[in-house]
Amino acid sequence: MHMINEFKNTVNDNKFQELLDFGKIISYICWQLSITPILYWSLACFYHTQDRNMIIKDLDFLVNEDSFPELILLLGQYDISYELKPWQSIVISKDDLKIDIDSAERYLSPRSGETILTQIGDSKFNILNIISLIDIYQEAIDNMPLNNDFQKQRWLYEKKLINLKKHVS
Q1: Which of the two ends of the chain, N or C, has the fewest CB atoms closer than 10 A to its terminal CB?
Q2: Which residues, other chains included, contact 35 with Cβ-Cβ below 8 Å and sequence gap of 6+?
Q3: Which of the pair, 9 or 68, is modelled with greater confidence?
């Protein structure tokens, strides 16, 4: 198992730890249903690049969409707030923390779902492989509207994509 023992970022270090703790709860709920959540987007990018300046604002998991109904039922039993979004995602929130559960069929297929079991602090996650993560960022950039509303998001994705490509062996 790969380990990252510390994350130092004065901008959001406390929130990062709160996100990891919340992510552990959501992962545990998934495991109760025999669902293996795959962590991707920013935290996976952080893992692959070790960019200590990266700000992690939320966590993003991939799960099979056919598990959404059971997952929603169990979230309700744990009194965890969620919203099912039309773009095949469940947005889970607690105070100012947010976790997105996205459809693996929509966002991962046909890429490899190969993961790396990783421990970040005292939290264990299955993190998406770097090649599939690069493909996901590239596809997001390619499909993003070119208008000004998405300029900042495009720039952030492009920056992460360049950084990820530097770490492909």
Answers
A1: C
A2: 63, 64, 67, 70, 71
A3: 68
pLDDT score of 10 more than 50: no
**Where are the domains positioned within the chain?**
2-129
Q: Do strands 2-4 and 38-40 pair parallel, antiparallel, or not at all (unpaired)?
A: unpaired
Q: What is the DSSP letter of 42?
A: H
Q: Is the pLDDT of residue 50 over 90?
A: no
Would you state the torsion angle of the CA atoms of residues 79, 80, 86, 88, taken in this order, to the nearest 10 degrees?
A: -120
By CB atoms closer than 10 A (0-12, 13-18, 19+), residue 21 is middle
Q: What is the dihedral of CA 51, 131, 65, 46, to 10 degrees?
A: 0
Q: Per CATH, the architecture of 2-129 is what?
A: 2-Layer Sandwich (3.30)
CB atoms within 10 A of CB 18: 15
Sheet holding 123-128, edge to edge: 2-4, 115-120, 123-128, 38-40, 59-63, 97-103, 89-94, 81-85
Name the pTM for this structure.
0.91
With b for 16 or more beta-carbon neighbours within 10 A and e for fewer, the 29-54 pattern comes to bbeeeebbbbbbbbbbbbbbbebeeb
Mean pLDDT of the chain: 91
